[in-house]
Design the sequence.
């Protein structure tokens, strides 16, 4: 966590007075704190392409994890106004251009995201992709990455399987494949919010099992 | 000016939600909509409810009880939860889509605890939101105040594991036995009993059990009679006590002990004393078991009270079947219950009519005699009266028969459509008249008569002088076994209904009518087996009437190969089990019980097994045709 603080300080001048700086004002949880007493914001984003140079964010969904549980009132889903046409990926996300044109601007959504994320630990399933896009948006707005602590459930699951010497087959780390190992139900639909909820449930299941009812510090998830 | 209400346009409507639920969460709402009682909520309320939900995950063995901090209704999204009462008795087992509220359950039945038995994802509706929903939605509220649905579900899921009543006695008996010699003095024995803190001692000679002595014997046969201390124990023991086998069921043992008033029963294994069971070992264990029902029946004072007691039998059967009880055991218990009802009705009649003028016996026929009754059985019974009976005695028997048959009918054992009942004169006769009738049937059988009376050859004394019943059965076996024409007629009867298999082992189902696409498991499966086995048993003078016992005897006496005997038994058990399971489903759906089953409703495996069962019956029929109908066509 101190590395993060250090990097934030490097960018402090650049982001002064922005929403990003405001978000950074909130104190970050100690890494020794039990996971149940940490606030998480579980995020999933949909993009028009998996290539960071080509794709742009289409929608973002998130939900909080508080006290080891997921209050659904914290669930949010935002469509982002597209700059280019959605094209082929519309078939995956069910997001059509006409819907997206009614959506919020990237800046508005980023603002809301930063409000929600303040003081929380972000959670993604396969963080590198979502973080790359979020950082991209942030750089454009504030000339700085978002610099927030995050947990990657995919990496956590991978490490868990490796510790158990379980051979990992292709597809074993997909979100639903991970969920299946915890007896979590499949979701029929596919959107940023449901995937965020699905990831949140996975986080809670994963942490519950690893903690075994004992104290389980945040550090072990980072 | 400041007190003015805000203008209409900015005020929220009553039902409006503080935040529009993201339509992306629709799957959560849709899931809830498929569960009880959320299906009663209007869509807008349901969507508002989703917002109040907290998703929680509990690993196995997580416990919820009164002290659980977060109170509210928990809907199981995946996984399974068990609910037990303070005695750790299983009340319910919940799976996907079912919900529980510890506070609510406690209000209803004392200390209740829920345990996660399979990692569970739950939707917690916090107490405040739950109460608000109940206050504002009558139908939603009614589900939690209404008992019916819950009781029904409990009947369907109730699983005492393992079913204690069907366990072998060896699992509950005590083995720390006190054994003494026949010549030991009463004082020595009493001292050892006091030291070992036991209430009974066994008297052995070599390794042979000679007697048993209990606390009560010391009191009544020794102290009360002021015998000298050096009296040998054999003088006050109960000699040659009744014993049970270690493999007997707890149910059978309990029944025997309560019926005869025993408190101790020695348990034998391989011909040697292995342990002892006491009444408290057995009875105190279970309160809602069939044995209690049987016991309660014998205490009722009138027909109405008996009927009240047995009206819940259908639900009980569902419980037993779901607890893994097998078909033979279910029918054994159902028969024990109808026996108990019959006996109680006879006792009530005797209280009114006075004692019987001459010895007699009440005989059960057919499935009751074979201990193979299921729900919805009609009554098949008769009376055998001692030959000393005189004309003026007859009204006593007629009055009794009418009282008992009417009572049985009232309790759900409807009058026999073929009039095979003690209340018809033909089925209430002195032993001699019965024996004449049997000879007449055996020597000049008509197909119609044979069909009508074939169940009569399954006979068992339910009440009264079993000697009369035994004598009649002896005549029956003697007449039947030596009379090949009669056996051929019985064989024709046994071949009458064919198993419902066409070529290529396809099921043959009814083409139209009420039971379209279904087959009658009783007529096409159970009856052919019982008839085939009865025929073999009569031909070989086997006195057993229960189909399993007959099959075992036939194999033991080498009239049938062990393989054939087992195959037929398996086929019968499988079909009976399917029949019972099907009836349980009908009970749960609130339908009338029937024996008709659509084979398409069966899982693939069961379908194959049913085919196998019918094939076995078909082969057994072929064997009957060759043995008893050779040359007759």
Sequence:
């Amino acid at each position: 966590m101190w590395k993060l603080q250090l990097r934030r300080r490097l960018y402090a001048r650049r982001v002064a007075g922005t929403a990003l700086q405001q978000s950074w004002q909130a104190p970050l949880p100690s890494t020794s704190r039990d996971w149940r007493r940490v606030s998480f914001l579980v995020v999933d984003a949909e993009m028009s392409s998996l290539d960071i140079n080509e794709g742009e964010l289409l929608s973002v969904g998130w939900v909080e994890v508080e006290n080891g549980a997921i209050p659904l009132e914290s669930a949010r889903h935002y469509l982002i106004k597209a700059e280019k046409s959605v094209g082929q990926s519309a078939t995956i996300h069910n997001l059509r251009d006409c819907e997206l044109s009614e959506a919020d601007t990237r800046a508005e959504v980023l603002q809301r995201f930063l409000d929600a994320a303040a003081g929380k630990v972000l959670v993604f399933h396969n963080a590198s992709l979502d973080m790359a896009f979020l950082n991209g948006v942030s750089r454009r707005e504030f000339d700085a990455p978002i610099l927030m602590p995050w947990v990657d459930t995919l990496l956590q699951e991978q490490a868990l399987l490796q510790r158990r010497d379980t051979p990992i087959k292709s597809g074993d780390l997909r979100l639903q494949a991970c969920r299946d190992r915890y007896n979590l139900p499949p979701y029929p639909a596919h959107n940023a919010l449901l995937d965020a909820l699905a990831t949140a449930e996975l986080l809670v299941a994963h942490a519950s099992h690893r903690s075994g009812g004992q104290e389980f510090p945040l550090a072990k998830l980072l | 000016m400041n007190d003015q209400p805000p203008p209409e346009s900015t005020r929220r409507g009553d039902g409006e939600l503080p935040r529009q639920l993201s339509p992306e969460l629709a799957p959560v709402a849709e899931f809830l909509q498929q569960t009880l009682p959320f299906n009663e909520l209007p869509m807008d309320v349901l969507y508002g409810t989703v917002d109040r939900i907290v998703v929680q995950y509990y690993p196995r063995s997580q416990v919820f009880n009164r002290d659980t901090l977060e109170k509210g209704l928990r809907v199981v999204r995946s996984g399974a939860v068990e609910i037990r009462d303070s005695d750790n008795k299983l009340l319910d087992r919940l799976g996907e889509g079912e919900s529980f509220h510890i506070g609510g359950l406690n209000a209803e039945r004392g200390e209740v605890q829920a345990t996660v038995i399979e990692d569970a994802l739950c939707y917690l509706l916090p107490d405040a939101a739950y109460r608000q929903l109940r206050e504002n939605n009558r139908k939603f509220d009614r589900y939690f105040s209404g008992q019916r649905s819950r009781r029904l579900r409990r009947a369907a899921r109730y699983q005492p594991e393992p079913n204690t009543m069907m366990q072998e006695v060896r699992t509950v008996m005590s083995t720390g036995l006190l054994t003494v010699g026949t010549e030991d003095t009463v004082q020595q024995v009493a001292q050892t009993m006091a030291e070992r803190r036991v209430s009974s001692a066994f008297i052995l000679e070599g390794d042979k059990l000679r007697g048993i002595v209990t606390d009560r014997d010391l009191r009544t046969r020794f102290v009360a009679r002021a015998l000298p201390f050096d009296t040998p124990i054999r003088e006050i023991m109960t000699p040659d006590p009744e014993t049970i086998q270690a493999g007997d069921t707890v149910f059978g043992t309990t029944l025997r002990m309560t019926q005869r008033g025993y408190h101790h029963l020695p348990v034998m294994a391989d011909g040697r004393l292995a342990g002892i069971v006491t009444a408290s070992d057995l009875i105190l264990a279970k309160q809602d078991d069939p044995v209690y029902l049987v016991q309660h029946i014998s205490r009722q004072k009138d027909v109405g009270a008996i009927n009240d007691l047995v009206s819940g039998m259908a639900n009980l059967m569902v419980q037993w079947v779901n607890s893994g009880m097998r078909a033979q055991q279910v029918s054994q218990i159902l028969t024990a219950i109808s026996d108990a009802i019959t006996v109680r009705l006879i006792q009530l009649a005797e209280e009114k009519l006075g004692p019987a003028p001459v010895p007699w016996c009440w005989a059960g026929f057919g499935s009751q005699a074979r201990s193979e009754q299921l729900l919805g059985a009609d009554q098949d019974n008769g009376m055998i009266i001692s030959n000393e009976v005189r004309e003026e005695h007859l009204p006593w028997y007629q009055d009794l028969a009418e009282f008992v048959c009417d009572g049985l009918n009232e309790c759900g054992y409807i009058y026999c459509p073929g009039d095979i009942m003690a209340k018809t004169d033909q089925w209430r006769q002195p032993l001699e008249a019965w024996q004449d009738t049997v000879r007449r049937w055996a020597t000049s059988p008509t197909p119609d008569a044979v069909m009508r009376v074939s169940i009569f050859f399954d006979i068992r004394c339910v009440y009264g002088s079993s000697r009369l019943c035994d004598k009649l059965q002896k005549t029956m076996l003697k007449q039947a076994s030596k009379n090949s024409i009669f056996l051929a007629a019985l064989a024709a009867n046994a071949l009458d209904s064919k198993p419902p298999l066409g070529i290529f082992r396809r099921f043959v189902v009814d083409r139209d009518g009420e039971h379209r696409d279904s087959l009658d498991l009783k007529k096409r499966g159970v009856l052919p087996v019982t008839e085939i086995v009865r025929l073999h048993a009569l031909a070989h003078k086997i006195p057993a009437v229960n189909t399993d016992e007959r099959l075992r005897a036939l194999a033991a006496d080498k009239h049938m190969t062990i393989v054939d005997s087992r195959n037929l038994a398996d086929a019968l058990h499988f079909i009976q089990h399917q029949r019972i399971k099907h009836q349980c489903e009908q009970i749960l759906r609130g339908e009338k019980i029937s024996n008709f089953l659509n084979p398409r409703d069966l899982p693939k495996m069961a379908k194959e097994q049913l085919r196998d069962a019918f094939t076995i019956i078909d082969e057994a029929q072929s064997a009957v045709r060759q043995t008893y109908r050779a040359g007759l066509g």
